[in-house]
Design goal:
Blueprint (H helix, E strand, L loop, with lengths): L1 H26 L6 H29 L3 H22 L9 H25 L6 E2 L2 H20 L14 H25 L25 H35 L5 H24 L3 H26 L13 H18 L3 E2 L1 H19 L2
Antiparallel strand pairs: 1-2
Helix pairs in contact: 1-2, 1-7, 2-3, 2-7, 2-8, 3-7, 3-8, 3-9, 4-8, 4-9, 4-10, 4-11, 5-6, 5-9, 5-10, 6-9, 8-9, 10-11
InterPro entries: Alkaline_pH_Ca-Antiporter, NaCa_Exmemb
GO molecular function: potassium:proton antiporter activity; sodium:proton antiporter activity
Main location: membrane
Length: 366
């Protein structure tokens, strides 16, 4: 039964990316009716799930914490590509789309993924254990790059409004990318043990209860399907983006909701992966995914957007408003209190979920 399920899974995750790529080609540069938008959206969602599955296969092959890093980078590549393709359309609200999507990713990862992971790990009254050294370093990096790229533009005076000057944007891009790469080096080389799952006594958890890693051939096949799925995701998102924007306008909601929808779409499969890890009492992997994705979202998106400004016209709004600043501050303070002890209960999970709910509600009804 298990082998049959594995065969079905491998077939599904191999067929869907190719089918989604074909759908992308058929729908490219066409004015799609709603039924076609629905079909494209189904294949878009399937391609996202397939992409994350193949990233997990590669992650299982290379081990932790490289696995979490592969998955976070794969998801962020999708996010960056979606942002750039939507920004280049020059549609209404595109000048703030990067800010809205990156901030939504931070709120979803630091509150949503962390919250549901803690709830999954403590659902039967247990205490979730993780490594405070590694998780604290990740959180500090997230807070720093978020402040550099999303908070400071609100207060700088080089340009009118919450914008950076070209020089300021270049500095923020280099600083955020540099911090991200420095963190990756610490995570994978110098202090790798800080990011491995731990037991309640602080010792590193064993991998003996997990299936053997896939073969090198399977990993290379997954890499190929992952690339196909990423292209399909970007292309199909480009095809349905006008419909998303029209639906947001028709509902009378702010354009910032478009960024929230993109972030929710991209991070949903990663959330599922984090919850699976938490249910196996491997909360450290869940936190690696959450904070790694938040960090990569800023550290990779802002440099790409900065480079794209060379040929793109129009303003680039990065600074957060007062409501968002309050939510970001609350998230950072609460996250510090969650991470520092190295253990958490059901209460901490509920607090983070409440903050995420506040963000979603206020995004739709500011």
């Amino acid at each position: 039964m298990t082998s049959r399920l594995a065969v079905l899974t491998s077939r599904w995750t191999g067929i869907v990316p190719v089918a989604a790529l074909i759908v992308f080609g058929l729908a490219w540069h066409r004015d799609l009716p709603w039924i076609a938008v629905a079909v494209v959206s189904v294949f878009l969602g399937g391609a996202v799930l397939a992409a994350v599955h193949h990233a997990e296969v590669i992650a299982h092959r290379v081990g932790e914490p490289y696995g979490s890093l592969v998955l976070a980078v794969a998801v962020t590549v999708i996010e960056v590509a979606l942002i750039v393709t939507l920004v280049t359309t020059g549609s209404k609200g595109s000048e703030s789309l990067a800010r809205d999507t990156v901030f939504a990713a931070i709120m979803i990862t630091c509150n949503g993924i962390v919250g549901v992971s803690l709830l999954a790990a403590t659902r039967k009254g247990q205490v979730a254990h993780f490594n405070a050294e590694g998780t604290g370093a990740a959180l500090a990096t997230v807070g720093t790059v978020a402040t550099l790229c999303l908070v400071l533009p609100t207060f700088t005076t080089g340009r009118t409004g919450p914008e950076f000057t070209p020089g300021q944007l270049g500095f923020a891009a280099v600083a955020s990318l540099g911090l991200y790469l420095l963190f990756v080096g610490m995570q994978t080389v110098r202090h790798r043990d800080y990011f491995l799952p731990t037991r309640s006594d602080g010792s590193v958890a064993s991998d003996d209860d997990h299936a053997s890693p896939p073969s090198a051939r399977a990993a290379w096949l997954s890499l190929g399907f992952l690339l196909v799925a990423l292209v399909a995701v970007v292309g199909n998102a480009k095809n349905v983006s006008p419909s998303i924007e029209d639906a947001v306008d028709a509902a009378g909601m702010p354009q910032a909701v478009v960024g929230v929808i993109i972030a929710l779409l991209i991070l949903l499969p990663e959330t599922i992966a984090a919850v699976r890890a938490a249910r196996r009492k491997r909360v450290q992997i869940s936190l690696n995914l959450a904070y790694g994705s938040a960090m990569a979202s800023i550290g990779l998106t802002i440099p790409v957007i900065a480079i794209s400004q060379i040929w793109l016209d129009g303003p680039l709004v990065l600074g957060l408003g007062s409501t968002e600043l309050v939510l970001l501050s609350l998230t950072m303070v609460t996250s510090v209190l969650t991470v520092v002890p190295g253990r958490a209960t059901l209460l901490q999970g509920g607090i983070h979920i409440a903050i995420l709910g506040s963000f979603l509600f206020l995004a739709a009804s500011p």
